[in-house]
Write a structure and sequence with these properties.
α1 crosses α2 and α5 runs parallel beside α6. The two termini are 16 Å apart. The chain folds into two domains: 162 residues, Stage V sporulation protein AD (Peroxisomal Thiolase, Chain A, domain 1, 3-Layer(aba) Sandwich); 153 residues, Stage V sporulation protein AD (Peroxisomal Thiolase, Chain A, domain 1). The protein is built from nine helices and 15 strands. With 337 residues, it is of the alpha/beta class. α6 links the parallel β11 and β12. The strands form three sheets. A seven-stranded mixed β-sheet has the order 1-2-10-15-14-11-12, with helices on both faces. The chain is globular, with a radius of gyration of 18 Å.
Length: 337
Amino acid sequence: MSKRLGKQTVYLQNPPTILATSTTVGQKEGSGPLAQSFDTVLEDDYYGEKTWEKAESKLQKETARAALEKASLSPSQINYILAGDLLNQCVGTHYGLRDLEIPFLGLYGACSTMVESMSIGAMLLDGDYADYVMSVTSSHFCSAERQFRVPLEYGGQRPPSAQWTVTGAGCAVLAKQGNGPFITHITTGKIVDMGITDTNNMGAAMAPAAFETITTHFEDTGLSPSFYDLILTGDLGVIGSKILLESMAKTQFDIASKHNDCGKMIFDIEKQDVHSGGSGCGCCGAVLCGPIFEKLQSGELNKILVVATGALMNTTIIQQGESIPSIAHAITIQKTL
């Protein structure tokens, strides 16, 4: 059987396993509905550091170390670490992981980075280029706001469409051999740009990319939404999820009964005043590596499609009048084969 299915999807003939995961989240996330499923909740969003950027680097470092401990592995046993964040030149990642001395591939997929890193890692394992791979992502509300919008001290009013960048990190250790859950399919997204220019409406910008990747996944694989227990996007929030479901309902692949979104799950949207929900690399990273992985391990979930979305822009190009190109990458995870 060919590993390629259609133009954008691959089938892994030797599906790697998710050996262990670890999560760290901030105070606000630790007050949300998923709090009990996270490994570490910070008492201080500075994480004992002098700056938010240094705190984000520590998020990655400590989350990666915790995942290694859970997997009973040392850094020297890991063949590759694939990681990224939202900051310029991914400095949160570079400074956070430099002491691990693991062969490193830095990635930038904005909020899609968790699934992008797991996709590439799974292909390295399926291709027999590695025995163990780590995928790590992070985001920090304060560092992201300072970079992408305005300084927190400015105190600007957030419109209802805005999402709250998650302070958090997720790490997954992938192995060539194991007892599952397994990564079986990967659908790599294409850049989609529908002309959205409002940086406070990421959901509307990213929803078309999620639509393109999900429909392509079903067309390439011949699967249908009924195959899955959950189709998880991350992180469209309230507005983006609504756009996606309305679009999918017009196709043969109506996903409404199977869908949830990391940005809607991580916060109590009404009580925590996060407007349209959560966002950031750490949103999908923390939700997937925390509560979703728990449900896969327990058997509450058996087959899931994880579709992480990202807005591929920066402030400079937006100030020049450009629109927001977006991406969505998908992986199928199955508890058993």
